[in-house]
Amino acid sequence: MIKKTIIAVCCLMAAFAPHHASAVNDKPFVIPELKVWKGGEGLLTFTAADGQQAAAPAIVVKKDANSAKVKEVAQILAADLKKSLGAEAQLPARNKAQAGDIYLEIKKDKALGEEGYTLTVTDRVVISAPTVKGLYWGTRTLLQMLDNSKGKSLPKGVVRDWPDYSYRGAFLDCGRKFLPMSMLRDYVRILSYYKMNALQIHLNDNGFKQFFDNDWMKTYAAFRMECDTYPGLTARDGYYTKREFVDLQLLADSLGVEIIPEIDMPAHVLAFTQYKPEIASEKYGMDHLDLFKPETYTFLDALLKEYLDGPNPVFRGKYMHIGTDEYSNADREVVEKFRELTDRYIRTVEGYGKKAKVWGALTHARGTTPVKVKDVLMDLWYTGYANPDSMLQLGYNLVSIPDGYVYIVPKAGYYYDYLNCKWLYEDWTPANLGGNKKFPERHPQIKGGAFAVWNDIVGNGITDQDIHYRCMPAIRTMATKMWTASATKLPWADFERQSQDVREAPGVNYAGYHPTGKLQVAQVKPGDTLPIDNIGWNYEVSFDIDAQPEARGTVLFTDGGTTFYLSDPVAGLLGYGRDGYMHHFNYQFYPGEKAHVAIRGDKEQTTLLVNGKVVETLGVKKVNFGERGDMYYIRTLVFPLKKAGQFRSRITNFTAEAAK
Fold first, then answer.
1. E strand or H helix at 105, and its extent?
2. Where's the Beta-hexosaminidase bacterial type N-terminal domain (predicted)?
């Protein structure tokens, strides 16, 4: 078994170890970059003078009118210290901090705004902020600073930190590609760790009909919410129950993140029109609603009511997104009906006590029908659909999400597969709305920014982990540029290098990232449990096998979502299944065959080697649909390790190792 080393943070010292260095401490590396750092001299160390581990930290809460809420922050911090560094933090009842303590307090400071904080490291750590949210962000900084030294020390100094933009978001298209609730919950934790505060979830959409025999009724479409009003509307291949969606929002709220649910309309609605064909537009296609039929509005009114009505609605946050993008503007009368629908559902959402969020489309849909402006938040994604100058002049508040800069569409051949993070880091802030439209920093109507993942190409093999690997560089970069904007000082090369060592979030490792770990097992026996769930890209997994006859479907390893087979259930070959897709190598063991097997995986391909020779590489496969175009089919594998299956073969000398 792999030898596991657990490093614990220790904030209450058995004996305080003084540090006599005279140099002023450099700014600690955290994401996003700290606004102001005044370095002190020396370190606050968290080990005893003899180098042995000290007692667990104490997190002390100032007793005042804010104590209850601050204690919640302290409890989250204590749990995260346990997850990330193994420390059993204590929350004593005393009111005053001692050497080695972490002290949390609400303290007025107008200059810090709603989300700013100070963090002071002397012989103790003091985090203070005007608000509970600011205090919470300060604890994220503390956790990252502790991670830099594996919990051993903190540089003495003072942090003053606040965001330039109040909206710092991410967008996930769950309509075309179902992303499991476990991933969404982890993403709340990840975004929170990087001080991002909004996650928009796109709940309905459809594929392109050219990949489905040009038949709308065959074209993939999904609505991801449990639905009682319209039984059978909910997607059968993956959906969120109301209870778990509420729980997601409660988790997010506790971690400073708002979930913004989006029900897209009146385009991108094939899931609705397949269910109720009579509300589909005959002129523009089934992915458009017919805006002239009363039944359309009856349907939408009832759908929104299910999630917004009552004292404890399913959608709990301040905002709901109503879509309103990419409807045809070919007909003047249709444009006016589109504007009417947009205004109607802005007001509908507001009637349930929420605020509306929309995609910018009012330049594309230029007309005379008034559309409500006040308190509406607009995603400015393409200047041809919504001219920024016009939208600002009308009075809209904007989120900067320019498609040409921050849209990820995996393996589509357009937009980005991975964002150009170097360019974003060096040249972009939310004040850049695309189309060379740059505005002054901190413009009062430009509330912030976001990046988006669109899963346009349905059925192309993309998994949730493929999406995750594309998201993490974007999250780290965008978090910085939406917090520090033009004040970002660290050179890109240094940021890129150091950011690789920042964890996803306490207790979260969705990528299966083990950069220095090597797992070795002398013999893997049926039913064995290994100490890690999986290993992410740039890995090599190898083993010796004394092969015995195996039934089809014989599992070597599984992590519950991904399975590697000694004999896959389709062809009886070495293969793997993940996220609804099955792949196999053109290789099957003879009974009694003895061989050394290796599997290598990266972000583009998965390779099988037997006795040192490459048998087959499963890379990106181009599938031609004739005049309808090409699809690029992905066959990556994050290798599962959690649980061994039931097999007859003898597996020895097992090794799983990430590339150096």
1. strand 102-106
2. 28-162
Instruction: Write the pLDDT tens digit of every residue in 217-265.
Output: 999 999 999 999 999 999 999 999 999 999 999 999 999 999 999 999 9
From the list 519, 470, 472, the residue with the least C-alpha distance to 634 is 470
Q: Can you spell out the DSSP letters for 300-368?
A: HHHHHHHHH-SSS-S--SSEEEEE--S---SSHHHHHHHHHHHHHHHHHHHHTT-EEEEE--TTTT--S
Dist. CA 289–CA 327, nearest whole Å: 9
Rg (CA), the chain: 27
Provide the sign of the torsion angle of the four alpha carbons 227, 232, 234, 238, taken in this order: positive
Q: What are the start-end ranges of the H helices in 89-195? A: 132-148, 181-193
Facing residues of 106 across strands?
129
Residue keyed to tokens 């978090």: 479
Question: Which domains are assigned to the chain?
Answer: 36-161 (3.30.379.10), 167-499 (3.20.20.80), 518-658 (2.60.120.200)
Are 46 and 152 a contacting pair, CB within 8 Å? yes
Say if residues 53 and 10 touch (Cβ distance below 8 Å).
yes
Query: Secondary structure of 503-544 in the HEC alphabet?
Result: CCECCECCCCCCCCCEEEEEEECCCCECCCCEECCCEEEEEE
d(CA 339, CA 329): 11
Question: In this structure, what token pair is assigned to residue 177?
Answer: 């590609």
pLDDT for 47: 65
Cα distance between residue 427 and residue 319, in whole Å:
30
**Ramachandran sector of residue 546 (left: φ over 0; alpha: ψ -120 to 50; beta: rest):** beta
CB 639 within 8 A of CB 659: no
Q: Which two tokens stand for residue 483?
A: 């917090």
Q: Are 644 and 557 in contact, with CB atoms under 8 Å apart?
A: yes
d(CA 76, CA 91) in angstroms, rounded, equals: 11
Judged against a pLDDT cut of 90, whether residue 312 lies above it is answered with yes
pLDDT score at 57: 79
* CA separation for the pair 296, 276 (Å, rounded): 9
